[in-house]
Amino acid sequence: MEYIQIKEYKTNFKERWIMKKVRIAYWTVTTLFSLLMLFAAVPAIMGEASTVELITEHLGYPDYFVFFSGIVKVIGLAAILIPGFPRLKEWAYAGMAFDLVGVVYSGLASGEPVASNLPMLVYFLLLAGSYVLYHKLNAAAGAAAADAGNSKQSRLVGAGG
Q: Which of 3, 41, 138, 152 is surrounded by the most beta carbons within 10 Å?
């Protein structure tokens, strides 16, 4: 019986260590992505002249789109950062991906060279990393909860025999 408890402790320690590493990676990548998106959203919300000029004159969007695009980014980031609400997070990740694709397409359609859109790869990589790590974190948490339930049940069965 003691051997089983030691083995469970080692297994739980290893799982907790892996989960801790995934959690740190998730929050690091998600924070970097959030900061980059906020640096794009805040000037749009504030109506900064260079941002308004870029979006309206260079890309050809209407004036009201500038404020809207900034607000939607902030709402999406809030949905990603606030714990819980898994379905809302999925939609927020999808919305961020659509936004990034739209930015790249708008730039290319307005005549920008492909090379000028290469820095957007950083945004895409951070978004993808955050999304993948979010799912790994949820899978690890679900597995840990299932294991805790199974080991509790096995201890109850073992105690009765």
A: 41
